[in-house]
Predict the 3D structure of the following.
Amino acid sequence: MVGMGSDLYERYSSAREIFDEADEILGFSLSRLCFEGPEDDLVQTSNVQPAVLTVSIACLKAAQEISNNSLPPPAFVAGHSLGEYTALVVANVLSLSDAICLVRERGRLMHEAGLKRPGSMLAVIGLDEESIEEICLSTETKVSNVNSPGQIVISGAQDKLDEASRLAKIKGARRLIPLKVSGAFHSPLMEPASDGLRNAIKGFAFQKPSVPIVANVTAQPLSNSEMIKEELVSQLLHCVKWQQSVETMVASDVTTFVEIGPGKVLTGLIKRISPATQTFNISDAETANQIVNSLNS
C-alpha cells in the first residue's frame, strides 16, 4: 500500500492538486504518508481512510485529465464501505475537503469502537448465504459483507468468530480468511461509533446527488441528502450488500463498471457477480491511460 498515488502525483497536475488539498485540510502531509509510509502509520484506521479516498479521487482526476474530460458520465455510482464516501464526492454530494475530514473522523470513531467492543472479521469462501446466516445465528456473529457468490464476510467478537470458523469448516467452507482489521465493522459492535458519526455528519453540507448512489445497506439508489446521511450511519452497523448492489445496476442495464482507487478487489468481485459485464480499474498512471485508450477506441 505504501507508494500508492505517487506516480499520479508526479505525472498529472490534477492529481497533484488533490493530494495538496488533502495535505492542507488535514494539516499534515498525507501525501508523504501515502508515498513513503511508514506502513504502520498508514494502515491506522484514521489515516488509511482519508488516504484511500484521496488516492481514489486522484485516480479519477488523472483519467479525466488524460481524456480531456471526455470520459462518459456514469449512470450510477457505488462504493464498498469506505468507498461510499468516494462515490459521494463523484456525485457532488460532498466536497473533497469535507469528505476527507468526515472519513478521518469516521476512522477515529471506528477505531475507538473497536477498543470499547473488541471484535474482528472473517471471510468465508465457498458457502451460500443461507448456510452462513445459520452459522451466525448460532454463534452471535453477523454477516457484514455479501461480496459475491461464495464470498461472504462475518463480524463479531473473536471467540464467536472462532466458533463460527469451526462450524463453517464442518459445513464445507473452502477457505476461511481472518481479516486484518481493528474491529467488527458493519455489525452491532460498532454501535459506540454511530452517535459520534451522526453528530459529525451534521457539521457538513450534503447536496442532492448529481448521479444516483446505490446504497450499501439497501442495494437501492439514494436520491436525496437525508437518505444519504442515514445510510452512512446505518452502514457502520449493517451488512454491505455489494453483490446485490451490482445486481441492481446490472438490472438497470449497466454493462460497464469502472473501479477507481488503489487495488482491484471490486473489479474481481464484479466479474464473479456478473461475468458478462465489462470491467476497468484505475489505480495508477498506467491504468488511467489504459482506460482512456479503451473507452475512446
Notes: Strands lie at 120-125, 142-148, 151-156, 175-178, 213-214, 221-222, 240-241, 256-260, 278-282.
